[in-house]
């Protein structure tokens, strides 16, 4: 029996495993890096061990330190979670050799499935369908192809190549990314199937010979070949196809004498054919949707099987209803998926019924690695949380999930929330028309989730009125209305940097503290603090009439053309986060008379985000062409390229490989030709 378990991971998956351990009476041990010292998973464990440093290679990828931590705390078992060392056969073997229980498949099974090339060769012999594969670029004779890393997963190392001219650079880039992420730069090329779906089968196997499938999951909506929306059952799979998929998954599991939780992934072509992609020898990120529709705790089953116990069933349980999961990332989809860092000042999702375990009834489940005050850094994957909806039908699950996301409050970092809501509400998604190219074909889902043209204007007005209420409360003469004048005067103005640029808000209250006039306009940032045309509400006839029903430091209620609207305002320093049924808007108040700042030289290339400089491909004095790759910045397990915006000469280079840079730091200066 497992008495005390160490989770060799962090964040959401560590909290997920701890939740089941508490329910089963198993004590828990967390590990944490420097930047994770205050993370929720550390506080929730019975014991915690510090891993000095921040880089994964110095902390969560150090198998020796993880085993030493288990021994130090008296743990008798190790759960790897997902990512990091979860599919590392050497680590699994070291855990077992240390006399600890490994919660996962055998090291041999991990090694056999760890190389996609070896797995394809092995499973082809037992009849699992395969796509044509080329190990060397010279062997590719038809396009398009998908360049893939042989080791690891999560979409890293993948590149779609549509012509021979692009193949060499794509292979080189994939090798670099795979070597950085997995320590193995082996890649191969596989035929790319247009408009294909990504469908996978969850399996559980015990040491008594039972191999059971728990339905399929559809994971077709992806960015950077990484899933962001997952659901079960798939809208494209009927009972006959499900049976064929499950039989192929069972054949794959039996071929390697598999024991534990695993996932066999397939590519489903429009013709109905399917092909093996890979086998993940661990628990998947998207396992909650299966737990909902099957009604099992997969982590509990992992522990039962690791203790040598049998599965509680011999065949696939019936599926109940429909479940959809979305992954909430700290990133900006409209800006090339750029990761976002900073303090998460507020993290609130309304209507959640349960967290970190199977739902007792249809509803919302939240598995999160963060909480209010968490700091999102550059060292790890930018996923913040997973939100799951389970309902009797697919349409109900999509509606429940999109509504909860739209009403959620995420303050402090940019997230992909708006994109997820638009995907869930899109007619193509609701009709089941999803495949791996969904986001490419539907650019409209990248638009901000604002309900009307007036959404930003009204949010700006609410922020200004909320600020005025806060100032009035702390005023020396609190009895006077905000902005009181004994003669008619111009509008009171506030300038914000907002989602549509720099915005000036003007308002005037009458003697009863009611809104007498208001107006909003976009302005040139260079004009801030300079004399100019007065903000004239009469010049903005498209502004709807508004009346203040109430205004406090954290909430403003307006009557807008006869419709009551509530705006929650959360102020952090100069930043106001405004949430309403109109959408969520982040506004940064600008000083009335800004201080002068040093101008960057013409042609400055700045860091797109904090991170470490990876490759530097230029030297001072070098002539470059527009679009040429100059250097890369590595952050959140990804490589971000910096290209030349125009032809020119590198007149200044401020960084070298390995340099740590902050967002906005000057990297180089390119003097245009």
Automatic annotation (TrEMBL):
Domain ATP-grasp: 120-307
CDD domains for the chain: biotinyl_domain (cd06850)
Pfam families: Biotin_carb_C, Biotin_carb_N, Biotin_lipoyl, BT_MCC_alpha, CPSase_L_D2
UniProt keyword annotation of Nucleotidyltransferase present: no
PROSITE patterns for the chain: ATP_GRASP, BC, BIOTIN, BIOTINYL_LIPOYL, CPSASE_1, CPSASE_2
Keyword ATP-binding: yes
Cofactors demanded by this protein: biotin
Domain Biotin carboxylation stretches: 1-444
Keywords: ATP-binding, Biotin, Ligase, Nucleotide-binding
Domain of life: Bacteria
UniProt domain Lipoyl-binding: residue ranges: 595-671
Gene3D superfamilies on file: 2.40.50.100, ATP-grasp fold, B domain (3.30.470.20)
Name of the featured protein: Biotin carboxylase N-terminal domain-containing protein
Lineage of the species this protein comes from: Bacteria, Bacillati, Actinomycetota, Actinomycetes, Micromonosporales
